[in-house]
């Protein structure tokens, strides 16, 4: 699955965010489709997410993206049977604080079903489900047919060489004069190669 911009990921589901730069969720004009961005690493292997009691709740509860997500999760609960589409967000390095985005991609096979929502703080819990199955069967992260793109940090051997490395070259010596040959490979003293 190819990573996309946030605007492209929302458009994949026909949803439109308040602001494509800071929005964490979006809704379609007819209020029948909701899409929510979710950090992939925050979902358990069982396909569930629960952000109740998050240690960094104070950092994100007042952000405009959270306020919009509360509105949109309410729409999902009231108009979509609790179902919402997922835009997976992958982190470059989970040891960074805050995380930086390596990529985003829409989940095109499964959806999430909202279990609980705190309309004041934005804390919520949800599970991964197969909307096409009877009774919206629960799914695990391993069940997804489309696996995420893997972020690979640049390999040190493929990085641009430093100027010192660029000036280094293999040296050759003139067989006749026993002096180092210039870059041309022709001896300045005797003219031999």
Automatic annotation (TrEMBL):
Instruction: State where composition is biased (Basic and acidic residues).
Output: 135-146
Top-level taxon: Bacteria
Pro residues composition bias: residue spans: 147-156
Q: Where is this region: Disordered?
A: 132-166
Protein's name according to its UniProt entry? Uncharacterized protein
């Amino acid at each position: 699955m190819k990573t996309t911009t946030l605007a492209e990921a929302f458009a994949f589901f026909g949803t439109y965010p308040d602001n494509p730069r800071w929005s964490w969720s979006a809704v379609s004009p007819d209020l029948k489709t909701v899409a929510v961005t979710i950090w992939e690493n925050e979902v358990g292997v069982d396909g569930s997410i629960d952000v109740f009691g998050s240690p960094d709740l104070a950092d994100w509860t007042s952000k405009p993206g959270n306020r919009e997500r509360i509105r949109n999760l309410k729409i999902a609960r009231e108009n979509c049977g609790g179902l919402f589409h997922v835009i997976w967000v992958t982190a470059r390095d989970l040891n960074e604080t805050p995380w930086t985005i390596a990529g985003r991609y829409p989940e095109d096979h499964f959806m999430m079903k909202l279990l609980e929502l705190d309309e004041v703080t934005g804390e919520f819990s949800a599970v991964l489900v197969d909307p096409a199955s009877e009774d919206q069967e629960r799914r695990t992260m391993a069940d997804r047919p489309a696996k995420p793109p893997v972020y690979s940090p640049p390999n040190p051997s493929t990085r641009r060489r430093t100027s010192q490395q660029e000036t280094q070259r293999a040296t050759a010596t003139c067989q006749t004069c026993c002096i180092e040959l210039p870059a041309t490979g022709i001896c300045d003293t005797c003219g031999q190669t």
